[in-house]
Amino acid sequence: MSWLPLLVKASYFVAALLFILGIKRMASPKTAASGIRWAGAGMLVATVATFFLPDMHNIPLILAAVVLGTVVAWWSGKRVAMTDMPQMVALYNGLGGGSAAAIGAVELLKFSAATHAGPFPVDGAAAAGIPTTALVLAVVGALIGSISLTGSVIAWAKLDGRMDKRFVFPGQQAFNALVFVAALVLGALVVWGLDQPAIIGFFVAALAVGVLMTLPIGGADMPVVISLYNALTGLAVSFEGYVLQNEALIIAGMVVGAAGTMLTQLMAKAMNRSIASVLFGSFGASGQAAEISGAQKPIEAGDVAAMMAYAERVVIVPGYGLAVAQAQHKVWELTQVLLKRGVKVKFAIHPVAGRMPGHMNVLLAEAGVPYDLIADMDDINPEFPTTDVSLVIGANDVVNPVAKTDPASPIYGMPILDVVASKNTVVIKRGKGTGFAGIENALFYADNTRMLYGDAAAAVGQLVSELKAVDGH
């Protein structure tokens, strides 16, 4: 049976290729769906191959866990609404980190038993013949995985509205630093002596770090946080894969960790923020923000339709309100009507629009919007001054001009879509509430802005009907 280990390693190599090719295909909306299937196939190959490893035991328990996890994931994936997708991504990030932490816990307890059990217990891991590198990586992977687990759960609770978007108290950063240092010290003690009390204390401190680190982070930073925890989960899995000497875990974890790290850097750059300022600072400046003068000016759907019907260029800016109303299909119908009239239409996407990276791209792809109509912030911003009508649907903070004009604003310094520079702006919004950052939007009070109040899907449906009436259909 000596051919079995070789077959398993060959399967892991195939799985690794599928992981890498799958993530590569996820880089484009046109091939993202197939990329997910490729990566899923790689995970299936790696999972099946693992059952043929030598010394596998507890097979019935493993199969029961696989079946249970598959059923729950399939059921929840089918039922989840697009508005709840960020919460699900956060939870899955946490589950991955929790799995890595659990592997670390099992291995550390196993190492501890090897050093302290029997009539002649040995003093430390080295005396028991445990490789120092494996022990250190088990601790590091468990630390990162624990932080990702509890941090992702807090992110989920914030995104789902189950807790305040920000939770701060005096001396918070100093307290957090002390807890993190305690986790490092306990981790060092685990490496030194593998005592069970030190292992338990280490995991308590590590889990606390994830909670404390995420509590003060505001809603505007949440897409960066989700991306960061995704990267941490990948790194934790890779480290624990080394401990288990499992090539599939090492490669998959490193690929996810590298992709997540690059995405986190891109997201932070798009917000003109450093990752350190997201984790350890408050967004923007503190102080008394400037008051916004004027009033929001309502408009009727018929007037908006006439404005758009005779426009040369229209830019549509989707936001979280579009996701809440499930209005993406109606928006694509509106776009098709405008295109038939010869109007040039583009979609402007802010990197952190919505509640997770790529949220708006996913919604538009689901509705069938062609990728060549979608423009990112850097490409579309120079075009706003020549845009006849900008239609903002549910977006708030990412189009708020105070990010450039008010140093005391909580979002000051965040790059925004320059919608305010358009000749005319129409904002579809349920009411006069604030965005996820909890501040007023100066765009809504601008002279060239009109407010079309109502549910996004219903309002866009009205616009479609009015436009067709203009054409005499």
UniProtKB/TrEMBL annotation:
Known EC number: 7.1.1.1
Every NADP transhydrogenase beta-like domain range: 9-465
Keyword annotations: Cell inner membrane, Cell membrane, Membrane, NAD, NADP, Translocase, Transmembrane, Transmembrane helix
Single GO molecular function: NADP binding
Glycosyltransferase among keywords: no
Cellular compartments per GO CC: plasma membrane
Domain of life where this protein originates: Bacteria
Recorded topology in the membrane: Multi-pass membrane protein
SUPFAM superfamilies attached to this UniProt entry: DHS-like NAD/FAD-binding domain
The keyword Transmembrane helix appears for this protein: yes
Coiled-coil positions: none
Subcellular location: Cell inner membrane
Transmembrane segments: 6-23, 35-53, 59-77, 89-109, 129-154, 174-192, 198-217, 249-268
Catalytic activity line of the entry: NAD(+) + NADPH + H(+)(in) = NADH + NADP(+) + H(+)(out)
InterPro entries: DHS-like_NAD/FAD-binding_dom, NADH_DH_b, PNTB-like
Chief localization: membrane
Assembly information from the UniProt record: Heterodimer of an alpha and a beta chain.
Family membership noted in the UniProt record: Belongs to the PNT beta subunit family.
Function of the molecule: The transhydrogenation between NADH and NADP is coupled to respiration and ATP hydrolysis and functions as a proton pump across the membrane.
PANTHER family, alphabetized: NAD(P) TRANSHYDROGENASE SUBUNIT BETA
Designated name of the protein: NAD(P) transhydrogenase subunit beta
Organism encoding this protein: Arenimonas composti TR7-09 = DSM 18010
